[in-house]
Amino acid sequence: MSRLPTGGQVDRAAQVSFKFDGKTYAAYSGDTVASALLANDVRLMGRSFKYHRPRGVFTAGSEEPNALLEIGRGAAQLPNTRATMQEIYNGLEARSQNRWPNLNFDMMSFTDFLAPFLSAGFYYKTFMWPRKFWLKIYEPVIRRAAGLGRISGKADTAKYDKAWLHCDLLVIGSGPAGLMAALSAGKAGAKVVLAEEDFLAGGRLNGENLTISGQRGADWAAETVKKLRAMENVIVMTRTAITGAYDGGTYGALQRVSDHVAQAGAAPQQIFWRIVAKQAILAAGAHERPIAFPNNDRPGIMLASAVRTYLHRFGVAAGARVTVFSNNDEGIQTARDLLAAGVEVAALIDTRKDITPEIDCPVLTGSKVIGTKGYLGLKSVSVQRQDGSVTQISTDCLAVAGGWNPSVHLSSHMGRKPVWRDDILAFVPDKNAVPNMHYAGATTGEFSTRAALNSGLEAARAALLALGLSSKRVTLPKVEEAAFDNLAPMQIEGKSRAWLDFQNDVTVKDIKLAHRENFRSVEHMKRYTTLGMATDQGKTSNMGALAVMAELTGQSIPETGTTMFRPPFSPVQMGALAGRNTGKHFLPERRLTSDKFSREMGADWMEAGLWLRPGWFKREGETRWRQSCDREVRMVRNAVGICDVTSLGKIDVQGPDAVAFLNLLYVNKMSTLKIGKVRYGAMLREDGLVMDDGTVARLGETHYLITTTTGAAGQVMAHMEFCSQCLWSELDVHFVSVTEQWAQFAVAGPKSRELLNGLLDTPIDNDVMPYMSCGDAGLGGVAARLFRISFSGEHAYEIAVPAGYGAALMAVLVKAAEAMDGGAYGLEALSVLRIEKGFLTHAEIDGRMTADDLGLGRMVAAKDCIGREMSERVGLVQERQQLVGLKPIGTVKQIVQGAVMVDVGAAPVADNLLGHVSSTCFSPTLEHCLALGFVKNGRARMGDQVRAVDLTQGIDTLCEITSPVFFDPDGGRLRG
Amino acid sequence: MRISCPHCGERDLREYTYLGSAKLLDRPDGDAGAEAFYDYVYIRENPSGENAELWQHSSGCSAWLHVVRNVSTHEILSVKLASEAKA
């Protein structure tokens, strides 16, 4: 057991058990999967992406590149989970990834021997020939060989939420700097959110053995968090990673609410927060730098800071015989901490020559590690001493301390790159990178705890000043610690590969290759080698690669530059971004007032925009939708049909200038429309093409009701608001959408008036209610509106009642219709009826058509209106594809919607294109297929033969060009 | 990005719909001719910096807004009602 008898912040009274690759292990509450596996002497935790190299945990935090596991079972299986971030819980199941058949013996590790052929950019150079092998053989094989974890392939069963949070000050990170800043701002009364990615606040204080104001650092952190939690104006959010910094003080944050428990219960799995903060303090700390040396990727080799964290926070010795390798004082500290805990230290290897640390273990100064042994776990290291001699040291853990990189990531999310500091040989945030963001602690390049506490106070003071709050006096705690010097990132030459990016298997050699092949700019180098492009985004590798490239090009590191850091800072599951907007909740669903009634009638449903509308109403004996549709069409033509048309947009327009306003919106003149009359109208966009069509009913002196198509209702409303607020704000006109306030039903067919007269309080006739008229009506005392309009070509009405009466009216109308050999009809029949009459929908009004193309040219009045001027420009008036009807006259009787039109002898290629088919149906009235479509100069070609060709299905239909009005061309039935 | 609606206060980008340049406020007279309308409909400056734009508070009060925004930094420099922005 590597668990030490005492120490750490795990709860030794709360033992739990978990499984890794099927084997059961014991752990304590407060462990991560990584610390628990180390405590059980498990060092091998995964295989690398490309070469399938055995890997162990490398860090103790968010930046972990190696120890990625699949957590959970079934649909909830979550791949690529960092073992260092996953809290242990009783019954947790973890599995290693990217290996077959098992972790110790991975067949795919032969790829490691192929490494000479799999260098950076290999896929640009190899596996090219024969060409057709790529898709079927090379790519599938490479894809199977490379990779990380597997998803379950099933729909995620976890619940996620999205939420907003507003605060005065967001403090990112809860190390000494963040805690101090939050404490100071909290005392000053600011509304503070303190976000910490870890489940335990305190940052490095938990991983170090240091004293603050006479207390253990970890205890001081816990006490400070307790104080913060007691403040009503402070929210402490642990398990919450700030993933991105965005415009306007908006931050993305992922809270892992239930990832640490076996069952989420009522709580969501995760919440994706959008935090809006007036001020922010980035106190995200720093990541320790690795040192690249030959075979530096073996299980057991890890960062010195990680070794100290496992020791102090989890009470775990990362090895039985640890060797420390460093280029700075962190190595000495690590060795001292290990010795103090009773862990054997094989040697302290320091690259510096001029140090004489007082420590009770072998010290090799001016020395470096030049190789390692141990395939599945570190067995020994080769050390080159100052005099050039090489020593083998047997060891099972190598703690590497290469200095620190400030965590600058969030500071560059808005496009500013970090700036280089020569004195500490590291990048730090550009102070102006993110508006209203302040920086504190190791993120600024001040690595001491004292500086962190102090800069936390300073940053809080600056933020409070900007908020207009006065700082309260907060005493700076006292810390005992030695000074720290950061040294340049380093790599050690050797024959074997030295890894930079562990996760994507990028070595120093790959960077050299990129340099040789002239991919020298950091952005090119990154994409050519894939360095920093894995799920860890190169947190441990970018600096090392920069240093190698800088050395090769003879430039300094700042001259070489750094790649841009982009959100997210750490991985975010798609589920969290989606929240509850999945499946049917992706878009709202709008239902008609007659929805329940139609369901009871057995309607089949179709989507029209957000609306659900009945497609057809199946009756007994009908097995195919066409049977129902054909019957419904005949019903309307011969008797009477009822259709809920509520979903059409209805906009109530009122005011002294309403008519002037409508005149500017519609191509046709609305000023001549009399009270009680309805007119069909079309609106253009300002570029001269048709936006939408509908009816305008004049209900009173200054009162109009306009209708829009179902799909364009929102667009037309926004357009009208634009016209009224931006163009003609001097017009005294007001309008509001009343689509949902009025339920409206089409009553269509030769018996429609007879049906209505059986229901209306006052009967109507052709004098009271002629074609294209409107007026008030009463239905058993309910005030209704009646419109004599028709989208079917029949004698028809639309009757509107306040929405609350919609369901009842539908039932009454359908019952009355059925008594007259009619009944309800759906969207399919409605569509057939309108195609037979050549009426338009957005299949024709597709945003590319002029009013004239659609046969509405005569409506365009000589007056200013939106789009009139542009509708007359050259490109829109000549050689246009015009709306026509199409009738099959050859052996093929079917016309396909979307088919292209060509002349009889012409090949169906772009150069010969005459137009396209926009709508088709089988007409039960005419007993053949018919279609609406567009043909170049079509109105001058009536009677000509053309072909409608659907190349995808191979359907080639000989058609005759006809008028788009197939049925009742003189409109006698409408007026009857 | 956050925009302060004169009616509703500061709100997130998601509540707004972008249309385009505030040049759209200056519609030529109906008889100004093809050239003037061509310029109005199609010709736009493409500044890297401050740009006057039209946004609608579509998920709020429906007001059309005249917004001056730095398109390089997304800094919002001024917001007023479009109906009041016309000279």
Structure, described:
Chain A has 7 domains: 1-156, Ubiquitin-like (UB roll), CATH 3.10.20; 160-286 and 406-467, FAD/NAD(P)-binding domain (3-Layer(bba) Sandwich); 290-402, FAD/NAD(P)-binding domain; 497-567, BFD-like [2Fe-2S]-binding domain (Arc Repressor Mutant, subunit A), CATH 1.10.10.1100; 615-646 and 741-834, Gyrase A, domain 2; 649-737, Alpha-Beta Plaits, CATH 3.30.70.1400; 879-976, Elongation Factor Tu (Ef-tu), domain 3 (Beta Barrel). Chain A has 22 helices and 50 strands. In chain A, the strands form 13 sheets. In chain A, strands 8, 9, 12, 13, 14, 15 and 28 form a 7-stranded mixed β-sheet that branches. In chain A, strand 13 and strand 14 form a beta hairpin. Chain A is elongated. The mean pLDDT of chain A is 94. With 87 residues, chain B is mostly beta strands. Chain B has one domain: Folate-binding fold. Chain B has 2 helices and 6 strands; from the N terminus they run E-E-E-H-E-E-E-H. Chain B has a 4-stranded antiparallel β-sheet with strand order 3-4-5-6. The model of chain B has no long low-confidence stretch (mean pLDDT 95).
List the topology elements.
The complex is a heterodimer of chains A (976) and B (87).
Chain A: E1 11-20, E2 23-29, H1 33-39, E3 46-47, E4 54-55, E5 68-71, E6 78-82, E7 93-95, H2 122-125, H3 133-145, E8 160-172, H4 176-187, E9 192-195, E10 211-212, E11 215-216, H5 217-230, E12 234-237, E13 240-246, E14 250-255, E15 270-282, E16 286-288, E17 301-303, H6 304-312, E18 321-326, H7 329-340, E19 344-350, E20 363-365, E21 368-373, E22 380-384, E23 390-394, E24 397-401, E25 404-406, E26 419-421, E27 426-428, E28 437-439, H8 449-467, E29 499-501, E30 506-507, H9 508-516, H10 522-529, H11 542-553, H12 557-560, H13 574-578, E31 590-591, H14 595-600, E32 603-608, E33 611-617, H15 625-638, E34 641-644, E35 649-654, H16 658-665, E36 678-684, E37 690-700, E38 703-708, H17 713-727, E39 734-737, E40 742-748, H18 752-757, E41 774-779, E42 782-787, E43 796-802, H19 806-818, E44 823-824, H20 827-837, H21 868-871, E45 881-888, E46 900-903, E47 915-923, E48 928-936, E49 945-950, E50 955-962, H22 972-975
Parallel strand pairs in A: 1-7, 8-9, 8-15, 9-12, 15-28, 17-24, 18-19, 18-24, 19-20, 31-33, 34-44
Antiparallel strand pairs in A: 1-2, 3-4, 5-6, 5-7, 10-11, 13-14, 14-15, 16-25, 21-22, 22-23, 26-27, 29-30, 32-33, 34-40, 35-38, 35-39, 36-37, 37-38, 40-43, 41-42, 42-43, 45-48, 45-50, 46-47, 46-49, 47-48, 49-50
Chain B: E1 2-5, E2 9-12, E3 17-21, H1 34-42, E4 50-56, E5 64-70, E6 75-81, H2 82-85
Antiparallel strand pairs in B: 1-2, 3-4, 4-5, 5-6
